[in-house]
Design a protein that fits this description.
The chain is of the alpha/beta class. It has 17 helices and 11 strands. The mean pLDDT is about 90.
Length: about 350
């Protein structure tokens, strides 16, 4: 509890908030990239401590939320096939595809299993040589090393019955896509600390310089976020646009280089469609040529197809920071965690789920 007390100290939070008030002389729009940061902001009322002239914009930093409908439908297709053990992290089971979700496939007899590590799926493949085991690889750079290690080990063990349905995405290209949009209101970023733990923050310097936006690598506790906001505001007020590291206790500039090396070996950078946002160049990871034998999409021949989002769901606008969840007419009525229209209401990092749980209107 000592750690939690230290980073959730109410008096210190008030002190930092007063510093933000003193430093702020005009309106600023700051985006927190990570859905975990969004949940902390809404849960602890961090935005309510800030000057009314500071607007915190919720970004697309929820990997579950941005997984495109097409890939969800591919997962549903594979999971429903006989002889398949389909494995996934638990937060993907209730994400709606175009017609159903993985939990419903499981209820109808599909062998869908929650795992806590991609390496659990490799172990299942070893234990069930007569079955096809598929892991649903979803997430940002944070979870990519573990997925890469699973494929690397499967190759080392010469497992022919293991494959990966991959939907990993990369954060910096998404930030650039948002900044280059004609609707962009973002003047500064709180970058996701866990992504930078793996990747470091070297790649943010060109983004900050090109678009003249401050980027502060930020943690997830209330005091982390408040200090991150203060650091962004101080840069904005002084006319600077650099990269700073608030999360120094966990993040190094160079990141985790062995993890990066493994990612580069197993994956290659590809264009990726983001749910509600559209295709972003060089924003995804696909299996490299040496590991294409483990590509579940190719192994099972699942077809790529275009699927439209439900007309009532504004999750795309929420993910782009153009709307807040409670501005959706279906929020809390036709769209709830039990009966979601979009992934942002399902995921534990989704902005709509945060507003529903902590700030229902």
């Amino acid at each position: 509890m000592k750690y939690l007390d230290e980073y959730r100290d109410g008096e210190l939070a008030q002190k930092i908030a007063r510093e933000v008030h003193r430093a702020t002389t005009r309106p600023w729009n700051i985006m927190e990239v990570c859905g975990g940061q969004t949940h902390a902001i809404v849960k602890f009322g961090i935005d309510e401590l800030l000057p009314k002239t500071i607007t915190l914009i919720h970004g697309p930093g929820c990997p579950v939320c941005v997984t495109p409908l097409e890939i969800i439908d591919q997962a549903l297709d594979i999971a429903a096939r006989p002889g398949v053990i389909f494995t996934s992290f638990g937060d993907m089971l209730r994400v709606p595809g175009s017609a159903t979700d993985l939990l419903s496939v499981k209820a109808q007899g599909g062998d869908v299993r929650i795992v806590y590590s991609p390496l659990d799926a490799v172990k299942l493949a070893e234990q069930n040589p007569a079955r096809e085991v598929v892991f649903f690889g979803v997430g940002f750079e944070t979870t990519a090393p573990a997925t890469a290690m699973a494929v690397y080990q499967a190759a080392h063990k010469q497992l022919k019955n293991f494959s990966l349905l991959v939907s990993h995405v990369l954060v910096p290209p998404a930030m650039e896509a948002l900044l280059s949009s004609p609707n962009c209101r973002i003047q500064g970023f709180l970058a996701a600390g866990h992504v930078c733990t793996v990747m470091g923050f070297e790649e943010y310097f060109p983004v900050a310089a090109k678009y003249r936006v401050p980027i502060v690598v930020t943690g997830f506790e209330p005091l982390d976020i408040l200090q991150g906001v203060l650091m962004v505001v101080q840069q904005l007020e002084s006319g600077r646009a650099g990269v700073e590291n608030q999360y120094a206790r966990a993040v190094r500039r160079e990141g985790n280089q062995p993890a990066q090396k493994l990612i580069r070996e197993v994956f290659r950078v590809i264009p990726r469609k983001w749910r509600g946002v559209g295709e972003i160049p060089q924003s995804g990871l696909g299996l490299s040529e040496a590991y294409t034998a483990f590509d579940a999409g190719k192994k099972f021949g699942v077809a790529e197809h275009h699927v439209e989002e439900p007309a009532e769901c504004i999750s795309g606008l929420v993910l782009q920071g153009l709307k807040k969840p409670h501005e959706c007419s279906a929020f809390g009525t036709k769209c709830t965690p039990e009966h979601p229209l979009g992934a942002t209401m399902v995921s534990s990092e989704g902005a709509c789920a945060a507003y529903y749980r902590y700030r229902r209107h």
